[in-house]
Design brief:
The chain is α+β, with helices and mostly antiparallel strands. About 45% of the residues lie in helices and about 20% in strands.
């Protein structure tokens, strides 16, 4: 009777190949998962920036509506008027925006709006309208 020699090490080779395939599959899956997580984070940030931009535009529109009611009560010698407004966001949180009116000419103004931060003045007015401008005196004949 002939003795059959078994090949030793075949099981080890199969285990190594299987382990390599599992690790390669895991590496590809984790790479795709990380890419999807990064993409989701960017989409959330983009959405938050768009929402903030919309609220800032709303605050600017409010500032322009204030200018339509009259002129800001700027003290003599000053060219800037600061006030604040509150905008209610979609998630129910009230955010305060700082409105800055700068006088360019007698009837020309620039309006800027930004989100209020911790270092801003705390006692700014929240006007709903500005006083009507004083009419020009009639010319003397």
């Amino acid at each position: 009777m002939k003795r059959v020699e078994r090949r030793r090490g075949a099981v080890l080779a199969i285990v190594i190949i299987f382990s390599t395939m599992v690790l390669a599959t895991w590496a590809l899956a984790s790479r795709r998962t990380l890419a999807q997580v990064r993409l989701k984070e960017q989409l959330v940030q983009r959405e938050a920036r768009a929402e903030e931009s919309g609220r800032r535009r709303f605050a600017l529109a409010f500032g322009l509506a204030l200018l339509e009611t009259g002129l800001p009560p700027v003290p003599p010698g000053e060219t800037t008027y600061l006030c604040e407004t509150a905008i209610l966001s979609g998630d129910g949180i009230e955010r305060t925006y700082l409105l800055r009116f700068e006088k360019i000419e007698k009837t020309r103004w620039t309006v800027r709006a930004r989100l209020a931060v911790a270092g801003d003045p705390v006692t700014l007015p929240r006007p709903t309208r500005f006083p009507a401008p004083e009419p020009d005196p009639p010319p003397n004949p």
